[in-house]
Amino acid sequence: MPNQLAIFVSGRGSNMEAILAASANGELDAQIAVVLANDAQAKALTIAQEYGIPTVAVANQGLSRAQHESSILEALSSFKIDYIVLAGYMRILTASFLNHFRDPRGFYRVINIHPSLLPAFPGKSAYEEAFAYGVKVSGITVHLVDEQVDHGAILAQQAFPRHDDDTLETFKQRGLSVEHVLYPRVLQDICQHGIKVQTRERESVEI
Fold this sequence. Notes:
The protein is of the alpha/beta class. It has one domain (3-206): Rossmann fold. It is built from 6 helices and 9 strands. It has helices at 14-24, 43-50, 65-76, 95-98, 126-133, 168-193, and strands at 3-9, 30-37, 55-57, 83-86, 110-114, 137-144, 154-161, 196-198, 204-206. The strands form 2 sheets. It has a 7-stranded mixed beta sheet, sandwiched between helices. Helix 1 packs across helix 6.
């Protein structure tokens, strides 16, 4: 049976759309069980519905983090979820929530994509910070989520250049084009071979 993925989004969800397209055309051997957003107006929900994917909106406004996460778990309770895939989800998940998806091997079955070569430029403004710093090479990281922000074990990284005539917008667009290829590719590798992480020497080791 294919792996069951729950994709979490907050906005338009361009990475979500890349994952849905990869699943639809057979490049990703996984079933998208549900797309969940913390904003009922998120454009990603409409896109997911166009693909025939079940969607859930669990708004966080007016709720404590614990209340919101409890509501998410309740919303997911009717789905069998192998992995949570964060695709532009702009909420930090607590250890209490992550523990519901702890693998016996010691990691959480929660995956994120980040627009920098971590550990450089963690946080929500990675593109802007890397561009302002003047990097000549930036990149994209797919990693496991842990209790710290943009900190978990690295699954894959791919670099891309900054051009001399780049604006912030062209820099971002080049990065997004990498994101949209890398994320489905890493998810497919997980579906075929399980979770692997990179050592500091960037070799892949299975855990």
